[in-house]
Design goal:
Elements lengths: L3 E6 L1 H6 E11 L5 H6 L3 E2 L4 E5 L2 E5 L2 E2 L16 E4 L2 H11 L4 E11 L2 E11 L2 H24 L1
Length: 151
């Protein structure tokens, strides 16, 4: 299996959305950004993905400035291009135009030294859906605990 080091993970994504299709996208980074990513200085808290002219961009993803950078250090929350196949972009754009669908970033990781982002096509959860998900998770945990005690 290939080496895959997760740098940042979006915990709120699975809580706020039903995650359907997942995709791997490359990140177009500049200068010192890759060094900050390798140091784990990435936040996906408010990040979202938008489409402009059949291209995908991630916005509001925070990459901290590189500690040993100079005056050419990168801007922290600049818009970064996602590297996806044309067919994948087209599929995601068509789904996003449907009501309730969006594309959310799930994680940023390093794969053979390259920065990649896992994104997912997602549908928003209502409050009662979140409660049901929590109940199912608690019930599953209780069942696992009971089975473990029986062994």
């Amino acid at each position: 299996m290939a080496e895959r080091k997760i740098v940042a993970y979006n915990r709120k994504a699975s809580h706020d959305y039903f995650l359907e299709d997942r995709f791997e996208a490359g990140l177009e980074l500049q200068g010192t950004e890759i060094k900050s990513v390798r140091n784990g200085k990435v936040q996906l808290k408010d990040a979202y993905i938008s489409f402009v002219n059949n291209e995908a961009f991630v916005k509001e993803m925070h990459i901290s400035p590189y500690t040993y950078g100079n005056r050419f250090n990168h801007e922290e929350t600049r818009i970064r291009k996602l590297l996806l196949h044309r067919d994948e972009i087209r599929k995601l754009q068509q789904k996003v135009q449907l009501k309730g669908y969006t594309v959310v970033p799930l994680s940023v990781y390093l794969h053979h030294g390259l920065a990649k982002m896992e994104i997912a096509l997602a549908k928003g959860k209502k409050l009662h859906d979140k409660r049901n998900s929590e109940k199912e998770r608690d019930a599953k945990r209780e069942i696992e605990k009971a089975v473990k005690q029986l062994r």
